[in-house]
Amino acid sequence: MHLAAQAPTRSGRLSSNVRPHVRNKFGLTRDIPADIKRAVRQRCGFGCVLCAGAIVEYEHFDPEFARARRHSADGITLLCPTCHAKKTRNLISVRRIREANAAPAAMTVRYAFSDVEGTPRRPFVKLAGMTLKNCQIPLEVRGFPVLAIQDAEVERGPYRLSATFFNSAGAPSLFIRRNEWQVFADSWDVEVVGPSITVRQGPGQIALRTEFVPGEGLLVTRLEMLCGGYRLSGNVDTLEVRDPGGVGHSFTRCLSDGSKVGLSLA
Ligand SMILES: [Zn+2]
Questions:
Q1: Residue 132 contacts by C-beta under 8 Å, 6 or more apart in sequence?
Q2: Which of these ranges, 14-18, 192-196, 215-219, has the smallest mean pLDDT?
Q3: How far away, in angstroms, is 159 Cα from ligand 1 center?
Q4: How far, in Å, from the CA of 68 to the mean position of ligand 1?
Q5: Residue-level pLDDT at 19
Q6: From the CA of 252, how far away is ligand 1's center (Å)?
Q7: d(C-alpha 12, C-alpha 4), whole Å
Q8: How far is CA 79 from CA 50, 176, 239, in A?
Q9: Is 16 helix (H, G, I), strand (E, B) or coil?
Q10: How is the chain split into domains, by residue range?
Q11: What is the pLDDT of residues 118-138, one digit of tens each?
């Protein structure tokens, strides 16, 4: 078993592993090398092998951590915190974990998912260098709402955020559907750390890094996207847009408040 509940560090931030340097009787620490973690994520389709939940922890199941001499991707799987707790409490058998590892739920449904906390006010979107407040359609490309925020369905209900992000080859990298986000099981890599999701389309190639601000909004801090012939490239401060004719536009620390459509690329 790999303990994965999060513990505060001295800096006040959360670490991803409890006591990562504690060793088992063979001297193995709980620090799983990054390339092995990535191989496990890829094999499992970036979700819990039992339920496809995208908030995951690493579980040594074959053998269990106490009897492991090395970290092997084949012997580690992904479980969400709920399924992991059931396994730890012996409410799920090792046989069931083995079966799910051989046919991960996210590979069957083709995506892993989780939810976004709904907001009582229209959430803001900070799309790289462009901050959009009180906006129904923060980004539209050729009439397609790449980012959209619908009103609450009922009084005092949550606003509903939807988005479709594409990578630099024009393939979808992340969906948000009315406050549920989905990442694709055939992605090269998806890494969820705290409130941040990073989608990579190859080694060192970040297609998207986004961070939820619970109850407030959404930050997009890295973006390499091709959509409708437009190439969008963004970091924390600046959004660069190159139109199909190769003409570039740059937006640095821009603010739009109260417009129905934020950025429209026709
Ligand atoms: Zn699960």
A1: 124, 125, 126, 138, 256, 257, 259, 262, 263
A2: 14-18
A3: 27
A4: 23
A5: 58
A6: 40
A7: 17
A8: 7, 22, 36
A9: coil
A10: 7-110, 116-265
A11: 999 999 999 999 999 999 999
Between CA 13 and CA 8 the distance in angstroms is 6
State the Cα–Cα distance between residues 31 and 19, nearest whole angstrom: 9
User: 202 forms bridges with which residues in the sheet?
Assistant: 205
Half-sphere exposure (Cβ direction) of 244: Cα atoms closer than 13 Å:
7
From ligand 1's centre to the CA of 39, what distance in Å?
19
Whether a cis peptide bond, with omega within 30° of 0, leads into 145 is: no
What is the whole-number distance in angstroms between the Cα of residue 147 and the centre of ligand 1?
28
pTM > 0.70: yes or no: yes
- Tokens standing for residue 1: 């078993």
Q: How far apart are CA 201 and CA 239, in angstroms?
A: 20
Query: Ligand 1 centre from 136 Cα, in Å?
Result: 33
User: Which residues fall inside 5 Å of ion ligand 1, going by CB?
Assistant: 48, 50-51, 53, 80, 83
| pLDDT level of residue 18 (50, 70, 90 thresholds) | low
How far apart, in whole angstroms, are the C-alpha atoms of residue 253 and residue 238? 7
CA–CA distances in Å: residue 91 to residues 82, 85, 96, 101, 120: 11, 8, 10, 17, 37
**Cα 162 to middle of ligand 1, angstroms:** 24
189-211 residues labelled b (16+ CB within 10 A) or e (exposed): bbbbeeeebbbbbeeeebbbbbb
